[in-house]
Predict the structure of Agmatine deiminase.
Amino acid sequence: MSVHLSRRAMLHSLAGAGLIFLGATACSSSDPADDSDGSDAAGATDSPTAAASPAGRVFGAEWEKQARTFMAWPASEGVWGDQLAGVRQDIAGLAKAVAGYQPVVLFARPDQADAAQQAVGDNVEVVQLPVDDLWARDTCPVFVHDRGTLKGVDFNFNGWGNKQKEHGNDSALAAALLDKYKIPRIETPVVGEGGAFETDGQGTLLVTESSVVNDNRNPGMSRDDIEAELMKALGVTKVIWLAGVRGKDITDAHVDCLVRFVAPGVVLLDTPFPGAPADVWSQSSAQARQVLQSATDAQGRSLTIVDLPQPDPDKITGRGDAFVSSYINFYVANGAVFMPKFGDDAADAAAQKIIGDHFPGRDVVALKIDNIASGGGGIHCSTHDMPGTPAA
C-alpha cells in the first residue's frame, strides 16, 4: 500500500510507537552572553540586521575545519524499545564512516562503554559520560570562537520541550562535555537545540520560529527577546526566521531538516517528492522558499536557493510514522559529506550529485540509516562538530 511518509512523525504516532514519551536526555566555568538588540515583527519573516554581535564572537560554518565529531551511544530501551539494537548498528556504522576522515568521540554510559567500543572499533574513541539518546546535534553545546578562544553555548536541553521524558543525562551533557575538554561555557536563558540553528559562518542565522518561540521551551519570551539572546550567545548579526511546524514532531521542525547553507549566499531547500500530496511539511517548505527569496544575509547578499527533492515514498526501504525521508539532514566533515540513502536509487543518486556539486573536493558518502531515520532524525541530528584542527 502506498503511504506518504512525512519528514517527521505526528506526536501521537510517536507515542504509539513508544519512541518519545518514555524517555531520553542532553551540560564549567560560565561566560554570560553579551548584549544586543532584537528584531521586529511577530511573523516568520526576514528580520532586519540588529546591533552588532559581541566583538570577535563567531559561529562558524560546518564546512570549516573540525577537530573532531561528537556522537552519543543510544542507551535506553525506554526510548527505543525493540529498535535499540538496530539503531545502535546504524550509529556504529556512521561513527566508523566519519572516523575515516576525522577523529570521532562517542559518549556512552559507563556500563555500556565496552559494548559501544566493540561495536565501533578501535578508530573511534569511546568516552564515558552518561547519555540517554543518540541526538548529539541537540544535546552537545553549540561551539563559537570568541576573540580566538573556543567556547560552547549551553542551550539548556529540556527534551525538546519535555516531549521526551527521559532526558536528565542529556540535559547535563553540554556542561559535562565542556568541563571534560576544558572549554569555557557560555550561559544563555534560551532553551533550544543545536539542530535548530543553521549558519553561513558570516553572521547569518536560519531558525524556525516553531522550534524556539514556543512555550514548551521559552515561555514568556517573544521572538524579539529570543533573537536578541541568540545574537548575544552566538555572535550572529542577522536572523532569518522561517515559520516551521508546531506540534507535529518532537523537535517542532528543526531547520536542519528544512534548509541548509552550503556556502555563503547559497542554501539547499528540502522539497517534496514530485506529486506527493500536500501536507504541513510541504507547506513549510513553500513558506521557507517565500521567505528566502526575499531575504538578504548578514552581508547584504540575496540568497540562491537550490532544491533538494525527497525520494519517492513508495521506493524507500525505511518505514514508520516517524521516518525522516529528507536528504537535507547531511553532515559536512573534513574531506567528506555524509548523507542518507533511502533505497530510491534515482533520487539517492540525484541528491548525491546536488550535494557533491556544492562541496567540490569532498567525498559524498551515502549511508543507509533506516533505523536512525525511523526515530525522526538523520545523520546531522546524530553528529556534532567541534571546530579546530584535528590532532595528529
The longest strand covers residues 66-72. Residues 1-32, 34-52 have pLDDT under 50 and may be disordered.
